[in-house]
Amino acid sequence: MGYLSLRDEEMEPAAESLKEDIVAQVVARVADCYDKHDLCCSESICYVLSQAFAGGLSGRDAVRLGAGYCHGMGGAGCSCGALTGAVAMLAFYLSPHSPEGLRKKPFRREIRAMHDQFRQRFHSTCCRVLSKKGEAGRRRFNCQELTEAGAEMAAHVLLTVRPHLMEAVDRQFLQDRTCSLTG
């Protein structure tokens, strides 16, 4: 895993190992939703993060939340949907308006750090630029890589800032490979 949160140095080795295992499962589940179940980048991230960490949204509502960010804000090609979907879910769990939310400045620092790391890793946060990287016809593969990275970064931040969520994670959901949106 490549993401470093602002609080990583505070975690014990056993907890760090568990966190990385959960992050890897989140990434695999997001990849499956994106690749096999016709969800876009942001929909996949919102769906998996809301269900895995018992966010209180139904699967359908989580997908609805992420729908507007697909293809760079509704097809405009602006901000990458993988990044904006990840930010939306961090805001859902960690914003100052959330039940266990951070204060404004720490919350914004976490979001900014994730944004900056995404930009450093992929050299852009613009869907239009990111989807053109690589060979022609590789857009879906490239977007899947971006989707996996957005999920990785968001899950990493979430579990670092709220380590108690490691105990509450829905492992069965993460291991499942169906994408039921009836709940």
Key attributes of the depicted protein:
about 180 residues; about 65% helix
Structure description:
It is a single chain. With 183 residues, the protein is mostly helical. It has one domain. The protein contains 10 helices and no strands. α2 packs parallel to α5. The radius of gyration is 15 Å and the shape is globular. The relative contact order is 0.21. The mean pLDDT is 88.
Question: What topology emerges from the helices and strands here?
Answer:
Blueprint (H helix, E strand, L loop, with lengths): L12 H24 L4 H12 L6 H9 L2 H4 L7 H14 L9 H19 L4 H4 L8 H23 L3 H4 L2 H5 L8
Helix pairs in contact: 1-2, 1-8, 2-3, 2-5, 2-8, 5-6, 5-8, 6-8
Structural class, judged by helices and strands? mainly alpha
Instruction: Please count the beta strands (DSSP E, at least 2 residues each).
Output: 0
Q: Which residue ranges are poorly predicted, with pLDDT under 50 across at least 5 consecutive positions?
A: none
User: Please, how many domains?
Assistant: 1
Residue-averaged pLDDT: 88
Q: What is the helix/strand order?
A: HHHHHHHHHH
- Main pleated-sheet profile: none
Identify the overall geometry: globular
Number of helices: 10
Strand content: under 5%
Instruction: Report the helical percentage.
Output: 55-70%
Query: What Rg, in angstroms, do the CA atoms define?
Result: 15 Å
Span of the ends, CA to CA: 31 Å
